[in-house]
Amino acid sequence: MTTAAADRTNETALRRGLAALASSWTDARGVERACYVVGAALLVAGVFHLGVFAVSGGPWEGPVSWRKPATFGLSFGLTLITITWVTSYLRVGPRTRTILLAVFAADCVVEVGGTTLQAWRHVPSHFNTETTVNRSVSLMLAVGGAVLVTVLVTFAAHALRTDPDQPPSMRLAIRAGFVTLLIGLASGAAMIARGVTLVNTGHQRLAYQLGGFLKPVHGISLHGILVLPALAWLLTRTSWTEHRRTRIVALAATCYGIAIAGALLLSLTT
Which residues are listed as membrane-spanning (predicted)? Predict the structure, then answer.
């Protein structure tokens, strides 16, 4: 293939990709558009709190930091948008998916909102039982976390079902992505369990210091559900065979698993 022909092929692929992105909005149902808007708002909130941190300063680590509303806004916003997009590939009834997405979006707002509220009050958001208000917020976040797990596990169960209508590369990417997401949820649950145990045994300060011992694993594994399906989607814009696309996705999933294992090793040895 000549350079000019390759350029035309790349330009065509780019044009098709942009058209597909546009259609994901124009063809979206009401609940999907609402989730995209809410996700975008959470991303903006995260960026705003990065600006607050840049202006006001203070520690980046620790239980009282502008890091928490910034990272929660960015992570939850990105996850909400991702889940809304990825679940459009699943064989889930429209009514069921609408309910699950609505609950998930509302819960994302609760999680980010509770964390942000405590940041502006300059108190820890998690494992904080020192006053009635703080205890209520901490409980709300814990309950919200349980709701998130329920919704995402439900979607994961649908993803693991056989769907002959899906290209093998996308099917593998979605399944592997949900597996990494489940690892992220499990690591989050482990951190909450450790923090709550420390609080209940009278070690409040240690809960703040040690409760987040799996944060590297948690952060990396949560977003495999975006990286791997996005890779598979991009590969469909190439002229490669489906067999080759599937092999590339399998390699990427393996590398992602190695990254998670490395993060786990780092968390357990530091």
Answer: 34-58, 70-92, 99-120, 140-160, 172-193, 213-236, 248-268
Pair of tokens at residue 210: 């040690």
Q: How far is CA 92 from CA 89, 158, 200, 226, in A?
A: 9, 7, 40, 19
Q: Both 106 and 156 in a single domain?
A: yes
* Final residue in a domain of this structure, among 161, 194, 229: 161
pTM of the entire predicted model: 0.86
- 212-243: per-residue pLDDT in tens? 788 889 889 999 999 999 999 999 989 899 99
Token pair of 23 as six digits: 């259609």
Spatial distance between the Cα atoms of 89 and 87, rounded to a whole number of angstroms? 5
Domain that holds residue 173: 167-270
Residues 126 and 78 grouped into a single domain: yes
